[in-house]
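Lesson 9: reading folded outputs for more than one chain in a single document. The general rule is that every protein is listed as its sequence immediately followed by its structure tokens, and records are never interleaved. Here is the first one.
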Amino acid sequence: MPFLFGSSDTAEANQLARMIKRNEARKLASRIYTTDMSSSPEEVIRADLPAIIRHFYPGAVISYRTAIEAKPSSAGFYHLTYGRKDKTHVLPGVTLRIWKGSPAQAGDTQLGADLFMASRPRALLENLTESRARAGSERKTLDRVAVEGWLDRLCRIHGPDELRRLLAAMEEIAPHLELPEAATRARTIIAALLDGDKGDALVSPVGRARARREPYDPDRLALFTRLATWLATETFAPLPERPTAERRLHAFWEAYFSNYIEGTVFTVQEAREIVFDHKMPAARPKDAHDILSTFHLATDGHNRREIPRDAADFLRLLEIRHARLMHDRLDIGPGRFKETANRVGTREFVTPELVRGTLRQAFEVGRHLSQPVARGAFMMFIVAEVHPFNDGNGRLARLFLNAELTAGDCGRLIVPTSLRVDYLTCLEALTVGGNPEPFVGLVSRLIRFSVELPCGSWEQSVAALEKSGALKDAPAGSWGIASAML
């Protein structure tokens, strides 16, 4: 134990004094000492704050906003219910706010000896009480937006029944806590979230969206907002549209490489026979149709430049393009949003019930982007990140990217095999780390690659790709061995 507490026992006090003299202990705060002689006082206190609470306030209940946040607030406060008098206990790096109130109740979680965490029903009631910040302090309760966000998160993680269980448990403990007004507010909020009734009583965007039956993923929305903000300040190099005579060959490479990224691998000659000669391999007809469908969508005069007018049109275009892209794969539900969760490794994409709402909200975040490349990159990422269908999401995302570019009279982007690993790595850096910089940097490199790719003839195009190594896999971080063309 790093903590030693001041004692009225003479022998213990003398022993502590000798330890301090020998530099074996030091004082952190009034009546609190530690044997940790290297860490900062703030680090020592926060490392085992419950030990301090148990010593000074045995039987205390971690309450109010702290029961939901489960850590000191951003302002450094930690809220407890204990005894019959409000008080403040200032420590290095954290301030304990002790509020008079009810002791531990049935359902409160015991955290070892002499310390409790308020149950979810209790935390809900406490955070729906009226409170105000005092000078030098903060409100002990979360605001309504945060409470509704917490309830929505419980619903997203555990399903609507979790809110019903929470409501039932709240009704049981409300009389003991004597918080009738908070109980009334809780009933109204949960009813609105579950049934949509009195949806106007909700104050948070995420709560109102759930009441409208359009719940969304707020964590993904924050990520999309970060990306849109970054893209809005970026300046991309010109990406001129291809001459008409070159567009079919360029679309071939778009389809070939887009499918290669997803693991649909053919030799260049095999892909050429599929697309231009309609020679379908007997052993892999569905894979061949994937390349052919991508090519048709990239060359269709209307589809290649159609972009959504609003959020509803975005959903419509997603369904239509996916139906055309995956028309030969009836097992994955062409044009139908997923009904079961999909994942890569241990990372899940947006859950099925949140797909429509998240896509709608994301579209609104990015609609202010003025540059075609910025809009295209944003659309590509949100489709890939939401992953709204059982399969085909990556190819679909790149089609939405290129539709934005074509609509803006720009050329279309290609992700060559040599940049496949970097492409996936940059998406991962944005998804997991929230860092848009590698992704935006890759887009700029793809612009240079796509501009320089010759498409005057088949022979010229293949020769350039082979010479640069763009048809070969390259390790992450190298930006591909097609660097000669970048």
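And here is the second record, again sequence then tokens.
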Amino acid sequence: MATSSVQLADGPPALPGCADRSHAIPWSCLAAVFGATCIPLGVLWDISWHESIGRDTFWTPAHMVIYLGGVVPGLTCGWLALRTTFFGTAEERAAAVSLWGARAPLGAWISIWGCFAMLTSAPFDDWWHNAYGLDVQILSPPHSLLAIGMFGVALGVLLLVLSWQNRAAEPQRTAVARLFVFMVGIMTAMNSVFVMEYSFPNQQHALRFYLIACWHYPALLVMASRASAVRWGATWAATVYVGVYLLMIWVLPRFAAQPMLAPIYNPVTSMVPPPFPLLLVLPALAIDWLVEREKRGRKCGAGAMASAEIPWWRDWVLAFALAAAFLTIFFVAQWMFSSFMLSPASNNWFFAGHRHWPYTSNPGTWMDSFWRVDRDPVTARGLGAALVLAVATCRGGLWFGNWMLKVRR
């Protein structure tokens, strides 16, 4: 790319479609966010479809929602690229990132690439199922390409919204900051889908679950807290993640379904909901409190140090505090809550406990017990390894959040 995507000064002029002279959020940003939101909703619906009905054709409604999530941001960002390249003013063109002579916001280029990856995976996935049948795991080769494309689309939309947040003045800045936090929540929901098979309540008394959680979630929450222009960014992002899951848990079972492929061990009569979401809101509250406290301490320091003057070790100390808070709160919350989720008290419409099993599951006592507790017990050494992972991801989240504060194109 010929033009840097970061500018530290007052910033370039607004890009077409991503800034507005009124207080309304631009249609292009709303359209891109709408498309990105379709991705986790469609993926959760598709998983439920496979668990309730089985594989029939590529043209299922769930698949169409997934690919709508790629096409809408892709077309929107393509329009931004064409608009900026051929009809933008000199100032607008200078404010964009150049790629092979064309100009668009950095986030637009990433979303366009993600859209192409998603569309490329579609015929590959159809051929894979026709050749090999159902996937044994979520991340088959075509699904891996699809996942990369989906994260590319979501990341591009996130950066598209972020660049406007960093340029906008109040009250636009507050409105778009909420949109930024919403997108972090959508990315958290997407991330959780691809580790869902390791996150059932039955697995939450084994060490592997906490290692995976410390590797996958802290960075996004810390990034939201550091880069958002509104307070409690991590908490709101975690709330969006929970909201996506609760929506699918409460809506999907309202629709009747019948298994169409053998073997059928668990004859479900409605769409199977996903498992209850993780309690990420609780550690997110601690993350927001620690990040806000660090910000206040920096402002109260001598002369409110510029970022270039901040000692290199300061973010490492904060990362350790964030990691310790995340692991401690998350471990205690999920350890206790998973016991409730395996009890008969959770078997209701709200928690959907014991209702997320697919038709291919042979009912038995294994559904009500914890797995891997003998082979993979939670030990002090194992939690120490989880803490190291959490420190690394929290430090990555702080680094990426610091970089995001500078993105203006």
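What the second record shows: The first helix runs from residue 27 to 52.
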